[in-house]
Amino acid sequence: MSASLTREVIHGLPKVLLHDHLDGGVRPATVLELAAEIGHELPVTDGTVEGLAEWFRASADSGSLVRYLETFEHTVAVMQTREHLFRVAKECVLDLAADGVVYAESRYAPEQHLERGLTLEEVVEAVNAGLRAGEAEAAAAGRPVVVRSLLTAMRHAARSLEIAELAVRYRDEGVAGFDIAGAEAGFPPSRHLAAFEHLKAHNAHFTIHAGEAFGLPSIWEALQVCGADRLGHGVRVVDDIALGEGTVTDDPEAANRAAVEDPSSLRLGRLAAYVRDTRVPLEMCPHSNVQTGAAPSIAAHPITALARLRYRVTLNTDNRLMSDTSMTKEMTALVEQAGWGLDDLRWVTTNAMKSAFLPFDERLELIEGTIKPAYARAAEGFHP
After folding, report:
1. Where does substrate bind (predicted)?
2. What is the rounded CA–CA span in Å between residue 213 and residue 20?
3. Which of 99, 170, 205, 318 has its CA 20 to 30 A from that of 9?
4. How high is the pLDDT of residue 9?
5. Which residues are annotated as part of the binding site for substrate?
6. Is 135 a catalytic residue?
């Protein structure tokens, strides 16, 4: 089945995206144009879109955290006015729709867009307006897509309660939930308990970046102390899954094989079992995880073993610009390098839609009315 799944076929499949950063998906051409407009100096001097796109990709691939973080300095710099935020948000929706995405959650940190005098409220309203305009244009072009936003607070800063209050205030205007992001080590999510308590008091949804750069304590705290609905990345849950005398982390390729051939040979620790038993959604981002060193390769990415063990795995892009990726590219890589088939893609897409911060009836409508029929049609052309 996998051999028949070409990139073109995959491109035509409906996709659901839960973990995508707005400032990590700006078009290179837009960065170039807006930087020139505001006088922001870019690190590439040849003035070409291709050169700038390559700089972003190479910097993210460099293995240097300093260079990786520098890439966001340039995208955030061109997202400081209402007009620019509107444009970036609208283009985000159009790019996702062109990739076959039918539902997405785009996350950004309002506190990072105040350098030119905007208020937090004005930032949120500008992004909301851009997302709605993008949805309308995509629908008119025959590519309907629903895009909601997640408001992110930076875990090293002290505005999380303020951002949580903002997420609650705007949840009827397209803000689906809240997120905590930034360096995990040294900045535990429990520093932001007031924000999480406010969200829970108002029955609001939230996810937490956990289990990527830091290990099991990050995951445990996000779930058991903070009460997260989902885990951003969560890849390090495999540190609590035993393979022989070691863990999945020691030999992920062997773990993937074992998960396919004999899942019982993988032994789940208490936390890993809890994550699976309670169906905690894992927002996994293969290309990004390889860039940051959280996974050794696409073929050896733990997403395959976790999928075979029936975790609530979802597939995501993280930062489309920095990783030079899309949902089509993420899916194609798993098909070509990790042996995924059409059923796997349908399953992971349905997982994501089930896990979306969207009302149940709207999730069900997309699953039953869009995702299932499209995959059923695709399956008619395959003979396993």
Report:
1. 21, 23, 182
2. 17
3. 318
4. 94
5. 21, 23, 182
6. no
